[in-house]
Amino acid sequence: MNYSMVSRPLLSRPQPIVAARRGLLPRVLRPVFLFAFASASLVFGPALAPLSAQDFKEPDFTKFKPEEGQINLEVWSWVVGLDKAAKLFEQAYPNIKVTVNNVGGGPVEYQKLQTAIKAGSGGPDVAQIEFMFLPSFIVTDGLRDLAQYGANDVKSYFVPWTWNQVSPDGKAVYAIPQDSGPMAFLYNKKIFDQYGLTVPTTWDEFAQQAEKLYQASGGKVKIANFFPTHAPWLISMAWANGAELFKANGDTWTQTLNGPETEKVLGLWDDLIKKKYVSTITGFTAEFYNAVSSGQIAGSIEAAWGPGVLAASLNDKTSGEWRVTPLPQWNKGQPFRSGNWGGSSNVVLKQSKHPKAAALFCVWLNSAKGPVLSNWTSYGIFPASLSGLNSPDLHQPDKNPSKFCGGQNIAEVYVQASKAVNVDFAWSPWFAFVNDNYNKQISAMLTGTLNPQQALDAWQSESLKNASADGYEVKAK
Description:
Blueprint: E1 71-76, H1 82-92, E2 96-101, H2 107-119, E3 126-130, H3 134-138, H4 160-166, E4 176-188, H5 189-194, H6 203-216, H7 231-240, E5 246-249, E6 252-255, H8 260-274, H9 286-293, E7 299-303, H10 306-314, E8 322-326, E9 340-348, H11 355-367, H12 369-379, H13 386-390, H14 410-419, H15 431-446, H16 452-469, E10 473-476
Parallel strand pairs: 1-2, 1-3, 6-10
Antiparallel strand pairs: 3-9, 4-7, 4-8, 4-9, 5-6
């Protein structure tokens, strides 16, 4: 999941923790920086079986025994609607009271968490952390190893690659997986029908329909929005095009932010921007939502959690008008490919006075049927739970995000997208700088100071320089 309906994931983050630099990061933790997909068959495994053929299997929660007496847990999360899931937990465990606090999404929360960890107090019992940033918190030694509370017993209930993210050595478990974000194209069917548009299956068709819509609407309606401050959004499409931005070989890294696969993606969008076929509004701001709700934007390249975010953010405006279709491909007949944007987990801080109860909450929240389905219908959290992905209940036509999409079974579209994600993609431990520097280079591109290739070259160069200064052995491909 990503960190709020007004600010997409990974906009920025605290400066890299010194202990994470080369030589200080425990060798056993290094693999966590990879998405760690061993093979395509491991991405979802049993979750790819027909949805109707599976029952929702839950772990034996009685193995997770909380502390005695009345317990109050504080949870930090940016997920709108998580309080609904917390109430379900309180019903199941009357002696445990859960308070959900949204202290800010992503980097805002991370800064507060780091401050609390350094101080040894002031933090919550449970916090939400994206997979890409989890290693930075592991090295602070501020997180509980949930293996001591039996977390490894629930490993088989989660998508394998997501478990690899939270358990890099296969023994210690630093979090419980929550969700992921395979990509697809969300479009407003009412607008498409109004202007006689064809749903694009390739990027060439996407550009053609963008031009058609621009001409037919007198330039008032754009086919989509280019997000100028959200690197993972662009990266997801480069990922789908075969880009591999980071590779690790022992202690040595290779970084390729300016490869031909990424340049092809950015070049396409730069052309659409120059022709004014797409907008360039900062993502998930009031301006963006107003443009979507008023019909100025007809579509969006979205992760699985995207429709739920829009449904919650637009407050039923345009509800029922939207549909989801597979991500456009570069060539007809090619093997279908998608990318991923997002994915997060729930951790327990060492300073929690009730770590057993907190561990129970993390496991229950992400593997019990009630909260998994509630989180999907409340905010579009695409489950990391295998049973969640298999459940026919993931499609409820009268509830969001399916309701927002006219009752369409959008979960099925995103499950298929999940199967098409390149399993070899990796993230680097200095991704925070990469993410922030992207904003600088894209801003220069939008003002005409740099062309797409120059922007990518500058992104690559400055990110390499920063990583080297932080002590990493990194080189260009």
